[in-house]
Design a protein that fits this description.
heterodimer; A: 183 residues; mainly alpha; Rna Polymerase Sigma Factor, Chain: A; Arc Repressor Mutant, subunit A; 9 helices; globular; B: 134 residues; two-stranded antiparallel sheet; 2 strands; 6% strand
Chain lengths: 183, 134
């Protein structure tokens, strides 16, 4: 089975685990684009996505000794990215709640606007946050149900049934948008 | 062999789209798809969804990736990670160009210079530590 996000040679992984920062750059180049894309679709904000990417890769570097014992390096990295994204979105909500001066709020803070995606994004935006996360993990990050279950801490059977339900919902949503002449 | 039900292969469809099925699973799915029109349609829908999702996902520029990596390396938490032989090789450019024998020669020279005092020489990092507490 192909690994999520691509594969690094075992020797290269070993070098990263031992602290070779040039080998780490290779790993970064392989996984960073997907992490960034995922963050952009969750946050809609370049600055936040760059922050998520940086924090994710820093966590990977600091946890590099675990690299060689992982079944899927990609799934591990994407799981970290997902947690960093959830943390950031939570922080933003708190920041929004305490920001009284609208002028002081940055363009990145508006969580509702982030969901205001167009065309195909519209169907995704109609999903709940957890549902959107699940769809992105499967279709963008190309994680298996087992990997998604590990990342979310839920049984694989639950992932399967949620995905089944979600696919129906997305199909319906896209058909509805087409009917409205949006897609 | 009897054809598997749609429910039995349903979970394989998204994984086929993202290329995560192994050869056995692909065979199972192919056998089912050959005789099942609704699943073929479902697969087409999933391919469209996958393509749309990847199409709308904004990719970072190489400049962005370089900038984030530079920030990452400048982060105190990154820099604080313990030095390893690989880091040593990178942070001491001399090590890339000097033959091992020259390294050994260099170490001997340092040792000779310091022989008059009781010094311990930590070869890996070139740190020189006095053993007499001075």
């Amino acid at each position: 089975m192909k690994a999520a996000g691509g594969e690094l040679e075992p020797e290269q992984l070993k070098r990263v685990a031992e602290g070779d920062s040039r080998a780490f750059r290779t790993l970064y180049d392989m996984f960073a684009p997907k992490v960034y894309q995922y963050a952009m679709l969750r946050t809609g904000c370049v600055a936040d996505s760059e922050e998520i990417l940086q924090e994710t890769m820093l966590a990977v570097w600091n946890g590099r000794s675990q690299l060689t014992s992982r079944d899927s390096v990609g799934a591990w990295i994407f799981g970290i990215a997902r947690n960093k994204t959830v943390d950031l979105l939570r922080r933003d909500r708190i920041r929004q709640a305490i920001t009284l001066d609208e002028a002081a709020a940055s363009a990145c803070v508006d969580v509702e606007d982030r969901a205001g995606l167009v065309d195909a994004k519209e169907a995704i935006a109609q999903l709940g946050e957890e549902e959107r996360d699940l769809v992105l993990m499967v279709f963008l990050l190309e994680m298996t149900y087992e990997e998604v279950g590990d990342a979310l801490g839920i049984p694989v059977g639950t992932v399967k049934s949620r995905m089944h339900h979600l696919r129906r919902k997305l199909k319906k949503g896209l058909e509805g948008l087409r009917g409205d002449g949006i897609v | 062999m009897a054809m598997e039900s749609c429910e039995a292969v349903d979970g394989l469809l998204p994984l086929f789209v993202s290329g995560r099925l192994n050869a056995t699973e692909q065979k199972r799915l192919a056998a089912h798809l050959a005789a099942c029109e609704p699943c073929q349609e479902e697969l087409g829908h999933l391919f469209r969804l996958h393509s749309q999702l990847n199409g709308i996902a904004e990719s970072p520029s190489s400049g962005q990736l370089d900038r984030v990596f530079a920030n990452l390396k400048a982060d105190p938490a990154f820099a604080a990670a313990p030095l390893t032989r690989f880091d040593l090789r990178e942070r001491v450019p001399l090590a890339e160009h000097v033959q091992p024998l020259m390294w050994a020669q260099h170490i001997i020279e340092i040792a000779e210079q310091l022989r008059t005092r009781e010094w311990a020489i930590k070869v890996g990092s070139f740190s020189v530590v006095p053993t007499d507490g001075s």
